[in-house]
């Protein structure tokens, strides 16, 4: 008979890419995960994974089994959570990915009181600026800032957002304050590399215009991008949730070039085709209220 524990171990190994990472996620030893995986393969009568010293890859049988194994694990987790929710309790595992700076500055402080009120939710929060694949990497949802490009995701808007063109007072004293989009061509730009150097997009009556300032520095972290702007290294296009406090404190100045950057939002998205759980909906509703409308971090608000 196939044991559910073996299926769960197999899914965790495939999603995480290694036995050691699967063991960390499941909170058990590597030897136990390996034993459960071996027992599953013995019961099924075939190899599910190719094992080398460097990586694990699915066999043809493993690829076929993985699709159903995912459904089985997800259905069991949801069934257990549904029973708890019928008793008026939000419970069960939940895995969410979110960007580093937003997670540290706003998501964490908003989530902590919610989780304290619902101690039976087992939340795994992965903080990473890379664009994760919610469907293939086993996330219940992702939280992101910006446009929604993946058509396989169903998005819930958590908050309005906008990006602000900012620089330090010292930088503007040295280089002058740009007043038009064309003025930006002569300025030093600080760019968030996860979105590329063509990231400065402004909405005009004739459509979107991309502005490319001179590259002074590219950074893949929002905190460091803000700090580089505060240090006077150049102009940065920052989300208001990062720039807001620095603008209110006078360490950064918002620059008006006649047009606003393209509108964006903070959103939670879950894979299409999955029925989102009550606990995921409850977290989304809580975050909407916690962030406010307009959001509390917006300097204009």
How would you explain this protein's 3D organization?
The chain is α/β, with parallel strands linked by helices and 301 residues long. It folds into three domains: 80 residues, Arc Repressor Mutant, subunit A, CATH 1.10.10.10; 99 residues, D-Maltodextrin-Binding Protein, domain 2; 99 residues, 3-Layer(aba) Sandwich (D-Maltodextrin-Binding Protein, domain 2). It contains nine helices and 14 strands. A five-stranded mixed β-sheet has the order 4-3-5-14-6. Strands 11-8-12-7-13 form a five-stranded mixed β-sheet. Helix 5 links the parallel strand 3 and strand 4. The chain is elongated, with a radius of gyration of 23 Å. The relative contact order is 0.14.
Q: Within the largest sheet, what's the order of strands?
A: 4-3-5-14-6
H-E order: HHHEEHEHEEEEHEEEEHEHEEH
Name given to the CATH architecture of the largest domain: 3-Layer(aba) Sandwich
Question: What is the overall pLDDT average?
Answer: 86
Q: Kindly report the name of the CATH homologous superfamily of the largest domain.
A: Periplasmic binding protein-like II
Number of helices: 9
- Low-confidence spans: none
- Would you report the number of β strands? 14
CATH class of the largest domain: Alpha Beta
Note the overall shape: elongated
| Class inferred from helices and paired strands | alpha/beta
CATH topology of the largest domain: D-Maltodextrin-Binding Protein, domain 2
| Sheet with the most strands, sense and barrel status | 5 strands, mixed
Strand content: 15-25%
